[in-house]
Amino acid sequence: MEYRKIQLTGESTYILSLPKRWVKKNKLDKGDVLSIMERGDTLLLKPREEREIEAEIDLEKKSLELISRSLITKYIQGFDTVVIRSKRYIPPEIRKGLKEISSLLIGMEQFGETSNELVFRMLMREKGDVADTVLRMHRMSLSSLEELLRNITPENYNEHILKDIIQRDDEIDKFYFLIFRQLSSAGGYECSMWIQIAKSIERISDHIENIANLVIQGGKVREEDIDIYKELIDMYSSLKFALMNKSSKRAGEIIDKVKSFRVEEKRIMRSIKAKEPETLLIYESFRRIGEYISDIAEVVINMT
Hints:
Blueprint: E1 7-9, E2 13-15, H1 20-25, E3 34-39, E4 42-47, E5 54-58, H2 64-76, E6 81-85, H3 92-102, E7 108-114, E8 117-122, H4 130-150, H5 159-183, H6 189-216, H7 223-245, H8 248-271, H9 277-303
Parallel strand pairs: 5-6
Antiparallel strand pairs: 1-2, 3-4, 6-8, 7-8
């Protein structure tokens, strides 16, 4: 093990010299870029790999669902190019379905095709850290929740906005897949924490989409219950501060609010006389949103 002193240049820039043997071994030179990953108290330095990596998927005797999952998996694993091949030809429905799936993968574009081959290539170089992507995903999901609660009662029903919320869930899924790609080459405790947060935000967004669909199908939410469910907006919004600052205090306050919300939510469920499955499922989805908010707050505490 070697030890190096931290040097200070100017008023705010800290410098640490690299071992010459390590620099030579990795064929590095002045101006080369290193990737830096933070894992708790440890910093991991790696030479940035410019070499593109390619994957192939054999189309033979596979369903569209299975091939689509394979394409998403290769994207998450960090492949730059994915080639899908068939010994004969690629049926139009498979071709169309894969193009639709690629639209959910940020930066992954169709790059070429023949009768028996489809090529998808990553045309974007991921910049920024995972925290920024998670916050963008959270901001979009929070906006959907706010619009949902403004437009689901019989008095304020707006089907156009509800349909827009449903479509927006695909955009949130894009960030979900991108976060997994960004974390594919990382590891350690904090990486697993960000994965849990991203999953919970994605589940919250799924329930928001579910509620919008159920209201369009005839499900009802009583006007007197809306104020209780609007508390979810305050709790979900507060998560941004907790995440950005890794504030265990704010996260603890959110968990306490969710506990109070559970009491009110149980009271509401006991008072509901409606038997329509759509209505009951709406209220259940609101309950689940509260639980996922609590889950994220607990992860924030575990990260501090």
